[in-house]
Amino acid sequence: MGKNEREENGFDPENHNQEEEEKKKKQLKEEEHSVERIFENQEVPSWRKQLTLRAFVVSFVLSILFSIIVMKLNLTTGIIPSLNVSAGLLGFFFVKTWTKLLHKSGLLRQPFTRQENTVIQTCVVASSGIAFSGGFGSYLFAMSERIAKQSTDTLDFKKLSLGWIIGFLFIVSFLGLFSVVPLRKVMIIDFKLTYPSGTATAHLINSFHTPQGAKLAKKQVRELGRFFTFSFLWGFFQWFYTAGDNCGFASFPSLGLKAFDNRFYFDFSATYVGVGMICPYIINISVLLGGIISWGLMWPLIEDRKGDWYSADLGSGSFSGIQGYRVFIAIAMILGDGLYNFLKVLSRTLLGLFHQLQYKDMSSELPVADHSSDVSSQSQLSYDDKRRTQLFLKDQIPIMFAIGGYVAIAAISMATLPHIFHQLKWYYILVIYIFAPTLAFCNAYGCGLTDWSLASTYGKLAIFIIGAWAGAAHGGVLAGLAACGVMMNIVSTASDLMQDFKTGYLTLASPRSMFVSQIIGTAMGCVISPCVFWLFYKAFNDLGQPGSQYPAPYAVVYRNMVLLGVKGFSSLPKNCLLLCYVFFGAAILINLIKDLVGKKWGRFIPLPMAMAIPFYIGSYFAIDMCVGSLILFVWEKINKAKADALAPAVASGLICGDGIWTLPASILALAGVKPPICMKFLSRGNNAKVDAFLGS
């Protein structure tokens, strides 16, 4: 048979050999980069063995640590960086130390696996996540009398009590977990959504459990410990100089007294220097730019119109005066940014779904399917994907269990929530729960594409809809804020669970162990977070007050959002509504330009949401964050490899040390122990007057 005949019959040995060689080369290349080949000799423990007692003991300790940190960030600025890396690293360190001691004593029964590490990380993030979604710095604190006194409506409030807060969180925090469980296969395997934070955490955990990664982890833990100690001792040192209001390093007029009056100063906060090292450069620059536009330009110009735009007799904290402009313009920017991103993620979600359903043969693999993929599609997968898919589909969570759990918790919520908030009628809750699974899916899908959870945006949607539906005469303020809590908890926990499923998929942790860990972590958070908040609430009498150590800016913002929804715009000061329209439009326009110019130039355009935060509280924390960015930038220029490896550990150490100092500081405040020294700064003229007064 000649060459032409062979080609006519559809078979050419030369081409066939080339194809075989290319396949072998591809296979060898895959094996070189394969993660699961490294671990193929290690037995994957069953889902029950992944849930160890030591994992949950470590998770409980770390949950307290991270809840304090998240609570502090919540009550100061509301900017909370991802703490997944820190949770994974500290979980590895604690259990590795534990197992090493047991190994030396001959008592070690079960080695520490990456699956157990993933269980710890999942539990800690679920627990500390309640400190955010629980609304202690936003909707829940906005219900209090303390925040109500700062707004135009001082009657509609609820007295805070530890009992009903814990009860409320237990009722609303678990529903989101059941809403997206049936979709895990579709999201992770069929759609292959990225979930960047979940993927990054999985790669980190996988690397810890390789010989080379273990060495790097040891270095990272050493740096974290060193900067944790420094940050804790620095917080302790600063405490000695804070005997009165505006005393200490936190009130150091580093850029001059005039700048200090306009909230431009470096306040020596190790926490926000660390946050600045973790957050992308553009976020830090956006926050600083927002501070310059507001406190550097706008507020001084508006204050010059005192007596014309608003009454000259009003205090600086009045919402009919300058404070009204600060808060409502910030709200306009937050809503403009939130609306744009909501529509962008929703459209991307719908387009993605259309693409998946139109161009891919989903047949029996639509949302509620739980069976394994076709043999033909399996054969195209790499070794890693085959192994991960096989184990991910091995331990199923029954669909009827998820649906039954959702319906049961929804029924309990409708029966009990109206007893906690009599303004929140059962039919409001029913409407929320009918639409919640769809919104939870949209949030989880959007988070998988962009790593952006829009939980607070969905919460604001509930504020306006339920608040307006209830009306001012029927307690619309509290109904709107409570509805915000219900919605925010559902969509937040849904996206968190899907992130954890992605991490579990990449580390061969069972979906069942992930789900159980998330439930236990959520239960821990429902107790730990309210107790931590209560400690802050009782220890610091000025909590939530403008200009205090813990101003809780978003509590005032959420309170005034619901008032806008319930009462309309009649209470706003002169020209405030016009400025709100301008900044609402500007937020949408900036986002649109950012998307149109593409990633190359878009990364230099600021983020309106970040710009809005200092409009109300000032720029002092932005300067701290930019110092953190500068340290990281210089470090990367000197030694990029070392900076990439150790910067997250250094930043985590700074955040954790300063955060943990808050605990003894709160205990000292509750015990009535006051610092011995007040370090205060005066102008030359005021100092001369004080000297003259003391000398007389």
UniProtKB/TrEMBL annotation:
Region (Disordered): 1-29
InterPro entries tied to this protein: OPT (IPR004813), YSL-like (IPR045035)
Keyword check for Transit peptide: no
Keyword Transmembrane in annotation: yes
GO terms for cellular component: membrane
Entry keyword set: Membrane, Transmembrane, Transmembrane helix, Transport
GO molecular function, one term: oligopeptide transmembrane transporter activity
Membrane topology value: Multi-pass membrane protein
Subcellular location field: Membrane
TM spans (from-to): 51-73, 79-98, 119-142, 162-183, 281-302, 322-343, 397-420, 426-449, 461-494, 514-537, 576-593, 613-635
Family listed: Belongs to the YSL (TC 2.A.67.2) family.
PANTHER family (alphabetical): METAL-NICOTIANAMINE TRANSPORTER YSL8-RELATED, OLIGOPEPTIDE TRANSPORTER YGL114W-RELATED
Protein name: Metal-nicotianamine transporter YSL7
Protein's organism: Castanea mollissima
